[in-house]
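Is this the right way to post structure tokens for a design question? Let me know if I should format differently. Anyway, here goes:
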């Protein structure tokens, strides 16, 4: 049975997994508690009501949780909503969240394999190789599902890996074109946003961590780099400094959070690789979310312009 929210039909019964977007405890006109919920999946959102067992259920799940729901689709004020009969928070690993929430197009396993192949093909320096192995082993599970950002770009399951792969691909091209130190540039590409993994607490709730607020992903990335490279005996100081420079300059200028302007060709290449991929993703999303007949999108503060949408079919 297809339980995707956009396909739900009136009077059908459902058994499905959704994200709890919002949950409010409210009172009926007769002063009885009920839960007023908005469920979400990758196809849309739908309201839902829990009328029974509210006292027992109200604290068993929270906004940002994924839940298993059974219920009936009813119509209320011409809109579908779910009359919830059963609801519970999912057990750990009960479902693949990338099937429920907006996710990168490619599966995380496919992307991870590409990632490993790029390293195998390009990285020969034993120190860089060890460093990448250590970092990727430590963060593999999170790296596979993490969003690229809370809001700005690649803000869906697997977005960080998708973005990182694209950046690495562009770094690969630019390194050949401009005869750069390819190993360094690609390693920088792989590591440039690694701090994002500790910037938010979970891939689903995307709540900021203390480190995320107080340090941000660039400084966290530098810390990870330092910590992991210290575990490798004889890791060359100059290599660590150059890699650190790639991370702290990848936002390109001070206004966008860089701690140093790119001062090597490799750092310049990484910055533009990062820039083009994040901007393309923002453009794509604005166009995808543009509805209506207007040939221009609304003004978007992130890019300081509206976009031409005349070619959208
Ligand atoms: Fe970044
Ligand atoms: Fe990035």
């Amino acid at each position: 049975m297809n339980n995707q929210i956009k396909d739900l039909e009136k009077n059908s019964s459902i058994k499905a997994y959704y994200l709890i977007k919002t949950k409010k405890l409210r009172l009926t006109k007769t002063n009885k508690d009920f839960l007023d919920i908005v469920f979400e999946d990758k196809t849309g959102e739908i309201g839902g009501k829990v009328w029974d067992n509210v006292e027992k259920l109200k604290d068993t799940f929270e906004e940002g949780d994924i839940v298993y729901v059974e219920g009936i689709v009813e119509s209320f004020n011409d809109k579908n909503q779910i009359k919830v009969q059963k609801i519970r928070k999912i057990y750990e690993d009960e479902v693949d969240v990338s099937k429920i929430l907006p996710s990168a197009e490619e599966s995380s396993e496919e992307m991870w394999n590409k990632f490993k192949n790029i390293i195998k093909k390009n990285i020969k320096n034993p120190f860089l190789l060890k460093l990448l192995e250590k970092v990727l082993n430590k963060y593999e599970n999170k790296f596979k599902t993490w969003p690229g950002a809370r809001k700005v770009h690649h803000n869906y399951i697997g977005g960080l890996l998708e973005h990182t792969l694209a950046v690495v691909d562009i770094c690969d091209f630019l390194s050949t074109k401009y005869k750069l130190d390819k190993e360094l540039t690609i390693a920088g590409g792989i590591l440039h946003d690694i701090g994002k993994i500790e910037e938010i607490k979970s891939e689903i709730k995307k709540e900021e961590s203390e480190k995320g607020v107080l340090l941000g992903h660039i400084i966290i990335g530098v810390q990870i780099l330092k910590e992991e490279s210290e575990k490798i005996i004889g890791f060359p100081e100059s290599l660590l400094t150059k890699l650190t420079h790639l991370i702290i300059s990848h936002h390109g200028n001070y206004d966008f959070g860089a701690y140093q302007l790119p001062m090597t060709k490799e750092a310049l290449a990484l910055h533009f690789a990062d820039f083009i991929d994040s901007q393309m993703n923002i453009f794509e999303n604005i166009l995808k979310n543009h509805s209506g007949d207007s040939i221009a999108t609304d003004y978007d503060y992130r890019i300081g312009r509206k976009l031409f949408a005349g070619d959208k079919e």
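Format looks fine. Someone answered above. Worth noting: The first helix runs from residue 54 to 57. Residues 163, 167, 192-193, 274, 278 surround fe (ii) ion (ligand 2) (CB under 6 Å).
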